[in-house]
Amino acid sequence: IQLWLDPSFGKVDADAEIKWLEPVTSSSPSYVIGWYYKTHVLRMLCEGREPSFCLLDSYARVLRPDLFNETYHLLRKFPVCLALDPRRTLAAELQFGRGISPEVTDDVKDIPRTFPLWNTGVIFTKPSEDSQRLFTELETICRGYLDRGLAFREQIGLVKAVLATEISPFTLPDNYNVRRPFVDPAIVLHTRRYGHFYGVPEVDTPVV
Predict the structure, then answer these.
(1) pLDDT classification of 1: cutoffs 50, 70, 90
(2) Are 43 and 164 in contact (CB under 8 A)?
(3) Does 65 sit behind a cis peptide bond, omega within 30 degrees of 0 on the bond before it?
(4) 154: alpha, beta or left, given left = phi > 0 and alpha = psi -120 to 50?
(5) What residues contact residue 65 under an 8 Å CB cut-off, 6+ apart?
(6) Which tens digit of pLDDT belongs to each residue from 67-116?
(7) Phi-psi map region of 4: left, alpha, beta (phi>0 left; psi -120 to 50 alpha)
(8) For residues 181 and 58, which has the higher predicted lDDT (pLDDT)?
(9) What whole-number distance in Å separates Cα of residue 81 and Cα of residue 96?
């Protein structure tokens, strides 16, 4: 993952404690443990003293830093800003999401299938009571799935956390989660499969 801090605060040292993550033992697929760790880092950052920040997936690229940095102003009115997932709805996630355990699908059976699906690869937020509640709930949900040895996607956990906390995120336009060619302006590009359309190599950045 990448941690981007609001540049209007000047030079800031991020909390070093996020580098020390509790080992997790689970019979869940190994890739979902990484998704759980992302929720853990989010919760820890929202409990810290850092300024507004954005957490990006490692394979995301910021193509328009000027527009990207203006997004932090939205956090004066909203506790969190999220981009829609390419699948857009819970129904599509449950239909096409890879390897989701039946127990997880059953867990959200009472949520309308048209409910929006946000992507956790682009998250703007700041330390606040609301963000702490939202991401503590998200971490708790994902840890519960891990403890049961289930396969899940954290996007499903985010849907549940939003409903449980009644904290509504601001939904960013498609420019913040570009996964197709020739979007203008492309602000945040997910480089897998589409980086070459923008002259960007499809490689992960170092973990921050």
Answers:
(1) confident
(2) no
(3) no
(4) alpha
(5) none
(6) 999 999 999 999 999 998 888 888 888 888 677 999 999 999 999 989 99
(7) beta
(8) 58
(9) 25
For the chain, the straight-line distance linking the first and the last C-alpha, in angstroms and rounded, comes to: 6
What is the amino acid identity at position 97? G
Task: Give the lowest-confidence range in 9-23, 116-130, 171-185.
Answer: 9-23
* Residue 118, C-beta contacts closer than 8 angstroms, at least 6 positions apart: 82, 83, 84, 85, 155, 158, 159, 162, 169, 171
Phi, psi (degrees; rounded to nearest 5) at 9: -85, 0
> What integer pLDDT is reported at residue 155 of this predicted model?
92
Decide: 1 and 54 in contact? Cβ < 8 Å.
Answer: no
Three-class SS of residue 80? strand
**From edge to edge, which strands make up the β-sheet containing 170-172?**
2-5, 53-56, 116-125, 80-89, 170-172
List, in sequence order, every residue forming a beta bridge with 118; answer none if it has no partner: 84
Amino acid code (one letter) for 9: F
Would you state the structure tokens that stand for residue 25, as one six-digit string?
């033992």
Q: Are 186 and 64 in contact (CB under 8 A)?
A: yes
Arithmetic mean of pLDDT, 45-54: 87
Distance separating alpha carbons of residues 36 and 42, to the nearest angstrom: 10
pLDDT value for 118? 94
Query: What whole-number distance in Å separates Cα of residue 125 and Cα of residue 134?
Result: 11
